[in-house]
Amino acid sequence: MRRVLVANRGEIACRIIRACHEENLEAVAVYSEVDRLSPHVRAADVAAELGPAPARESYLHVERLLDAAKRTGADAVHPGYGFLAERAGFAEAVERAGLIFIGPSPDAIRAMGEKTEARRRMEEAGVPVVPGTTAPVTTAAEAAAVAKRLGFPIMLKAAAGGGGKGMRRVAAPTQLESAFRAASSEALGAFGDGAVYVERFVERPRHIEVQILADTHGTVVDLGERECSVQRRHQKLIEEAPSPAVDADLRTRMGAAAVQAARAVAYRSAGTVEFLLAPDGVFYFLEMNTRIQVEHPVTELVYGVDLVREQLRIARGEPTTVKGGLRPRGHAIECRITSEDPFGGFLPATGRIEFLRLPSGPGVRWDGGIDTGNEVGVHYDPLLAKLIVWGETRALAIRRMARALDELLIVGVPTSQPFHRRVMDEPTFGRGEYDISYIDRVGGDLLSRRPAPTLLQHAALAAALAEHEARNASVALAPSNGDPPPSAWLRAARLQGLR
Ligand code: MV4
User: Fold this and answer.
1) pLDDT digits 0-9 by tens, 18-54
2) Which CATH superfamily is domain 206-446 in?
3) Does an H or E element contain 446, and which?
4) Looking at ligand 1, which residue's alpha carbon is closest to its atom 15?
5) Ligand 1, atom 12: nearest CA belongs to which residue?
6) Could you tell which of 116, 152, 202 is best to mutate to test the pocket of ligand 1, judged by most ligand atoms within 8 Å of the CB?
7) Do residues 492 and 473 make contact, with C-beta atoms less than 8 angstroms apart?
8) Is 276 a pocket residue for ligand 1 (Cβ < 6 Å)?
9) pLDDT-derived band at 315, boundaries 50, 70, 90
């Protein structure tokens, strides 16, 4: 393996390219027309244009990706997350083209992608699953019969995919018929398959996921848990490791269950087993994500590993360098910096990055995919970057995140930064006493009013405006005889009336 095509964009593409360079591998970036000036393109050794902005014409276009691999002499493909990362068909196409797919086998992807199949395999492997069906139910009547056995409330879920699409909570028999129809049609729309299965509803759970690393020499290790309960409409906003709700004994038990889950599908590479942790301390398998996840850095900081480099080593057939039985050290928190306006219902925002000042200092990590001058559009996921901090304790990590968020300045597009800054001051978050309903409960207060722009934001905007006007002025000053427009020096002199 010599040259890796990174079939992704943004922060994760930059992240993978860094790992490639540290593993003495060359990196090939792919980009759509609107991403021509993106940081991941500049960071790579070779770059290939895929096509127009729409993902289906670029980052989702299998033939163009494989053609780019061939044209650039790539011998491996890393899918990142999102896009084609969990499409078994893409992994198969990569391997059929004679390239290494940096991730699990297509069979493992497929087994975990079909949620009822995954639940069946987990039950067989002795991994605790939420009580319910391990096969789809085909009618509302069938669902009602299962619900009678389980007791209400129940959860209807799409068999063909996770992430909350096609999911409905049903509190009483009278709601079942309409909920079943809604869940099935949403599942059909999202995954092309309307099959639905039934689970008992777990009240007030925390969303806890366990990181797995499996090599091709039989080693399967867990790297502890991540707490991902701060999410809005199934989009995670803040993640942390370790979870404030998990002690050493529970960590050992969840880690063992996650390793069993990975072994049950002969897993390879990095993966994440998602659990629901109920208030009574009982945990249930939810689903397995067969990719590197957005939030992987919090695990890297508390376990001292580089998960993407481990993926590259494993793909080269080398044993993982990670030993089993590691314990987390300190505490890490990640805030997803997205181009969404928290004071405008988190609606996707667009704009041009006019000015970017990044936080730094002890224990601060910025996994970024943006630079000044970049246009932020609506073609892709609104994640711009991740701000991750590490501290010796959770309280110190929170204080450090607050400091880093105060240092961060992005001028030109609204971002989720003010939301995160307020969470760091919010008492229940500070005590770690939250579950998946956190945003519903405290989100409203946190976002009650938009803060006044800081002096620095005003100054940065004024500078950007002055530069914009000066640039326009120079265009206006461009001589009609076709001579080149005046240099910045000449413009400045003219503006001072010196020439
Ligand atoms: C559940 C659940 C409670 N009970 N299943 C969310 C998407 C996918 N990861 C599965 N999810 C859940 N499944 C049962 N039986 C709670 C969640 C859940 C959730 C549900 C609604 C709103 C936000 C949520 C965040 C995390 C998990």
Assistant:
1) 999 999 999 999 999 999 999 999 999 999 999 999 9
2) ATP-grasp fold, B domain (3.30.470.20)
3) helix 438-446
4) 201
5) 164
6) 202
7) no
8) yes
9) very high
Using a 6 Å cutoff on CB, does residue 202 contact ligand 1?
A: yes
Residue closest by Cα to atom 27 of ligand 1 = 207
**Amino acid symbol at 51:** G
Whether the CB of 130 sits within 6 Å of ligand 1: yes
Which pLDDT score is estimated for 89?
98
What is the pLDDT averaged over residues 108-114?
95
Q: How far is the CA of 198 from the centre of ligand 1 (A)?
A: 13
Angle at 82 between CA 77 and CA 85, to 5 degrees: 35
Q: Which atom of ligand 1 is nearest to the CA of 162?
A: 8
Note the CATH number of domain 3-102: 3.40.50.20
Q: What is the mean pLDDT of residues 144-148?
A: 95
Q: Quote the mean pLDDT of the chain.
A: 94
C-alpha distances in Å from residue 171, one per residue of 71, 412, 435: 55, 45, 20
* Amino acid sitting at position 317: G
**Ligand 1 center from residue 164 Cα (angstroms):** 7
The response to whether residue 235 sits with its C-beta less than 6 Å from ligand 1 reads no
pTM here is 0.91
Instruction: Tell me which residue has tokens 């997803």.
Output: 336
CATH number of this structure's domain 131-200, picked from the four choices 3.40.50.300, 3.30.420.40, 3.90.1150.10, 3.30.1490.20? 3.30.1490.20
The predicted-structure confidence for 436-476, as pLDDT tens digits, reads as follows: 999 999 988 888 777 677 777 777 778 777 877 777 765 55
Q: Is 162 in the pocket of ligand 1 (CB under 6 A)?
A: yes
- Give the strands of the sheet with 26-32, arranged side by side: 46-51, 26-32, 3-6, 76-78, 100-101
